[in-house]
Amino acid sequence: MRYRLLLTGVFLAFSLAVSHGDDGQTARASKIQFTMPDGLVQTAWFLPSPAAGEPPLLVLLHMMGHDHGSYDPFIESLQNYVKSDSARQCLMPHILNFDLRGHGESVRAGDREIPYHKMADSDFVRIPEDIRLTVAYLLADTGYGINAGGIMIIGASIGANSAILTSELLPNVRKVAMLSPGEDYRGLRPASAMKNFHRDMLICVARMDDYSRTSSESLMLLDPKNCRLRVYEGGEHGTDIINNNPRAMQDLLTWLCE
User: Fold this and answer.
1) How far from chain centre, in Å, is Cα 148?
2) Which of 36, 29, 35 has the alpha carbon at shortest distance from 15?
3) Helix (H) or strand (E) holding 20
């Protein structure tokens, strides 16, 4: 089944697809592809929540050089976490999992390919707007039953910077988690957005990841009232922190469901 919607001058196409995790398990998801104003065909995967009512929307943004599959262990852990204790009253969110521009299936613009290692900073700074357009598309379709006031974003590395910058474009973001953010990743600078967010933020970083750790310590101080910093031993970066450290995964799940 295929749907089309014209939203703010951008053509979007919706089609059913199957997303495969590294562990061989298959998750049913909706593959969303759309053409951005600069011609890039962007891809994301939408996994609807099985919960009744209006669950929140969780947006996942991977780190540079990876794709949406880097969040497979997190999605499985979240599903198990929600199922394990109904007393938490934590609804399984709808999940929108991106291939950021230049990565995975988001590399074509007409007859050209735009891989991330050939992108300029002016290309990377388009990412928050890509996210905004996609979320706006989903919210425009009331059939999904998404709680428009309950958007949460988790980003890793350049996806972490993109996550908090997206909060400036989407007024209904209530939580942002940043895994290994930096003060400046390819022109994406999060400081101003962090000062203005005034909502729940979590930063996770590895102690031996020097640039990201020092950046995280500085960024947290921009809003210590609303931002929590978790520093873990080791040198992992981005989603590798939660995928390789059970404590970090548990901390993220607990924060998400608070």
Assistant:
1) 16
2) 29
3) strand 10-20
C-beta atoms surrounding 253 within 10 Å = 18
Q: Which residue's entry shows tokens 């759309």?
A: 34
For residue 142, the model assigns a pLDDT of: 75
Q: What's the CA gap between 117 and 106, in Å, rounded?
A: 13
Confidence tier at 170 by pLDDT (50, 70, 90):
very high
Q: Could you give phi then psi for residue 169, rounded to 5 degrees?
A: -100, -25
- Find the mean pLDDT for residues 54-64: 95
Domain borders along the chain are 2-122+132-256
Distances from the Cα of 78 to the Cα of 74, 163, 197, 248, 249, angstroms? 6, 19, 25, 13, 9
Please list, in sequence order, all residues whose beta carbon lies within 8 angstroms of the beta carbon of residue 38, skipping any fewer than 6 positions away: 109, 126
The fold of the 2-122+132-256 domain, in CATH, is Rossmann fold (3.40.50)
Could you tell me the pLDDT band of residue 27, with boundaries at 50, 70 and 90? low
Which whole number is the average pLDDT over 206-220? 98
Amino acid found at 234:
G
DSSP codes joined into one string, 210-239:
HHHHHHHHHHHTTSTTTEEEEEESS---TH
Alpha helix locations (H) across the chain? 72-84, 121-124, 127-140, 158-166, 191-197, 210-220, 239-244, 246-256
Q: Which residues contact 183 (CB under 8 A, 6 or more apart)?
A: 189, 190, 191, 215, 218, 219
Q: pLDDT at residue 237 above 90?
A: yes
